[in-house]
Amino acid sequence: MTPTSTAPFRVVVVGGxxxxxxxxxxxxxxxxxxxxxxxxxxxAATGGYHLTLDTxxxxxxxxxxxxxxxxxxxxxxxxxxxxxPDVWFDWRGxxxxxxxxxxxxxxxxxxxxxxxxxxxADAAGDSLVLGSTCTGVGRDEGPGGxxxxxxxxxxxxxxxxxxxxxxxxxxxxxxxxxxxxxxxAGLLGISGRTRAADLDPAERARLGPRSSLTVGPRGTxxxxxxxxxxxxxxxxxxxxxxxxxxxxxxxWGAMVxxxxxxxxxxxxxxxxxxxxxxxTLRAAGWGDAPLQVLGRTDPSTVASYRFHVGPQRVRxxxxxxxxxxxxxxxxxxxxxxxxxxxxxxxxxxxxxxxxELLAARAGTQTLATAVSTFETAMRHRGTAVTNLSxxxxxxxxxxxxxxxxxxxxxxxxxxxxxxxxxxxxxxxR
Length: 429
Ligand SMILES: Cc1cc2nc3c(=O)[nH]c(=O)nc-3n(C[C@H](O)[C@H](O)[C@H](O)COP(=O)(O)OP(=O)(O)OC[C@H]3O[C@@H](n4cnc5c(N)ncnc54)[C@H](O)[C@@H]3O)c2cc1C
What we know:
By secondary structure, the chain is α/β, with parallel strands linked by helices. The protein has two domains: 7-39 and 131-182 and 310-398, FAD/NAD(P)-binding domain (3-Layer(bba) Sandwich), CATH 3.50.50.60; 80-110 and 185-307 and 399-429, D-Amino Acid Oxidase, Chain A, domain 2 (2-Layer Sandwich), CATH 3.30.9. Helices cover 38% and strands 22% of the residues. The strands form four sheets. The protein has a seven-stranded mixed sheet. Strands 8-2-1-12-18 form a five-stranded parallel sheet. Helix 8 (270-283) runs antiparallel to helix 9 (288-295). Bound molecules: flavin-adenine dinucleotide. The site of flavin-adenine dinucleotide (FAD) has 31 residues, from helix 1, strand 2, helix 10 and helix 11.
């Protein structure tokens, strides 16, 4: 991407999460007039744990961000390649083997969602308007018509293009289609973060400096992500480090089928939600070891959320005619966290749109062609990630049926025994 013409071209972005801020950063870098609106009043006061960025997301960010900001990102992220391979355990904490994930990029990096959002908010600078809740969007009829957003305080903003980067319940997508494109994926997630130092030495040793997936009966599961931007930094440059995680930390996400989740799991927060989650997994038969990381968590970090997924067929994704309103990221292809691809895909979308808009501004294509080309690529990219993430969701949910649960109870101990006999989990890469 090389900046070309500087003809006026105004873009309004609704939603300053990961995708909207990445888009704004790239457009600013190339001299576009852009404003991004987010309903949050502080970019740091947001939820979220760690996000995985594969090589294509890193390549996109390298082009969207100034080099100094990109260096700060690398200094604040931990390298997947530098830690031992991920493993899976059974519900009593017995190792079953190394996880081989289809599509996992060994050069991926992990970064706190808050850290990434703050870095991107820095890049967006004064283009970011906080506390700005969009309540409606529209466009003028006919070619060359402008797009418009209305906000809760009665103000409006308009541009040549309006981009909805407003997440899985996107107001922009609902305007374009009349209905949301995402649906509940069938799992309820409960997340928190626990410092490794707060675990017993034996449990710390069992989990190790690696991520793991623990599979239990009745469609329950636990992802435990290891994050340590100090010890496993991608770029060893302490002066550039901006990570909110400052020591070895486990970022965990328990998964329970929505069909059997209690009202308390959906409604509680903090300490009560942590205790209900531990009780729910214990009732499903889980042993003490894998529950320790939940029990020792900082209660202020515990929250539950419903997994949402966007369309799994290309023809159902972004099926509106290309024009001056479009959308990207979870607004179009909501992605359960089970593939670790949601943020990276939103960033690649942003890069794709910046590339096409540069060509439109330079006059080598029309705005409609730019948007259409961007949306076509996004349909294929988005469908690949919704299917990848649902493959894991479906495997977990398969264990929720009485037959699936019985199979889990019978087969995993045998696998654990054979893993122990063959000593397959080495803890080294
Ligand atoms: C609070 C939170 C925590 C998350 N935690 C994780 C995690 O731990 N692991 C993981 O893999 N993924 C997580 N995700 C999902 C992940 O961030 C997304 O999959 C990914 O970043 C896609 O980015 P996006 O920009 O499309 O959507 P998001 O990053 O979700 O951003 C959407 C933005 O739109 C804003 N918005 C929505 N409606 C309006 C409106 N009407 N007006 C103005 N602004 C609006 C929201 O405030 C939000 O900032 C989380 C998302 C959120 C919102």
